[in-house]
Amino acid sequence: MILGAMELHLLSDGPFWLDGGAMFGVIPKPLWEKQIQPDARNRIHLTMNCLLIRSGKECILIEAGAGDKLDPKRNDIFGLSGPPRLLDQMVRLGVRPDDVTMVLNTHLHFDHCGWNTRVSRGHFVPTFPNARYLVQRGELDWARHPSERDRGSYFPENFEPIDAAGKWSLLDGDAEISPGIRVFRVPGHNRDMQCVRIDAAGRTIFLPVDLCPTHYHIPVHWVMSYDLYPLQTMENKKKWLAEAARGNWLCVLCHDAETPAGYIREREGKYTLEPSPFT
After folding, report:
1. Which residues contact 4 (CB under 8 A, 6 or more apart)?
2. Can you give the pLDDT at residue 279?
3. 89-123 burial, b for 16+ CB within 10 Å, e for fewer?
4. What whole-number distance in Å separates Cα of residue 175 and Cα of residue 200?
């Protein structure tokens, strides 16, 4: 996709699988399985969508998948398979890790920041050595001291080596991180997740991230058990879905393997996603 001076590419770090009950919270299985069928382990098929933006001298990666550092047990639990993964897709575009100038983490759950780091000579080091890494300051603080409920979503090897290398550029609330690219702190999934809006050439691209991870989560009350603050998730969904519908924003859904992009449509107070290619 070309938007003015921006070149945008929708990439994926590959498929993964999460428990359907956890993904749909209080929605009973007889309802959600009409929408998406689970496997024999009650997991549903998801993906890890990422966005690569080239604009002038900037090469910006938004989201960083799960990476390649998980042990065999976790790879099996989450159904992570082999290539093509995020770095493979970047190479096909002619982008090397050294070319990336900024990595934006919407939050620090393992499936959004795994490629922050890699293993080199037995040590965890930044995958993108010339990049600034951005995240909300509160999210980094929380990742270091998570609750018992969400401890399993944070892996220090994804964020502590960034600090050791002096690569963090921490944010405190809403901000414009590059011309036309803004982040908004949106609590619900956790305390300091940030959504992303890109405005260029008269169009808007919006990443609601885990506010609406798939098109199945567009209905306001379909929220995940993973959400620490589900009522805030619902209130923020009402706000941002309404804005996306009014503004005709193209929304990119971070975990949707079937419908990664589309436009929010409002009919009689209810929201749906009209699928659209990322063009």
Report:
1. 200, 201
2. 84
3. bbeeeebebeebbbbbbbbbbbbbbbbbbbeeeee
4. 16
CATH of the domain at 133: 3.60.15.10
Q: State whether residue 30 is helix, strand or coil.
A: helix
Quick one: 233 exposed, middle or buried, by C-beta within 10 A (0-12, 13-18, 19+)? Answer: buried
pTM for this prediction: 0.96
Enumerate the β-bridge partners of residue 27: none
pLDDT of the residue at 114: 97
Pairing of strands 250-252, 203-207: parallel
Domain that holds residue 6: 2-275
| Closest listed residue to residue 228, CA positions, set 144, 136, 142 | 142
DSSP 22-69: HHHTTS-HHHHTTTS---TTSEEEEEEEEEEEEETTEEEEE---S-S-
Give me the number of domains the chain comprises: 1
246, 264 contact by CB (below 8 A)? no
Q: What is the mean pLDDT of the chain?
A: 96
Q: Which residues of the chain have pLDDT under 70?
A: none
Which tokens in the block code for residue 219?
A: 């209905």
Hunting for tokens 């169009």 — which residue is that? 203
End-to-end CA distance of the chain: 5
Q: Which tens digits make up the pLDDT trace of 84-133? A: 789 999 999 999 999 999 999 999 999 999 999 999 999 999 999 999 99
3-class secondary-structure state, position 47: strand
Q: Is the dihedral of CA 166, 68, 136, 181 positive or negative?
A: positive
3-state SS of 186-252 is CCCCCCCCEEEEEEECCEEEEECHHHCCCHHHCCCCCCCCCCCCHHHHHHHHHHHHHHHHHHCCEEE
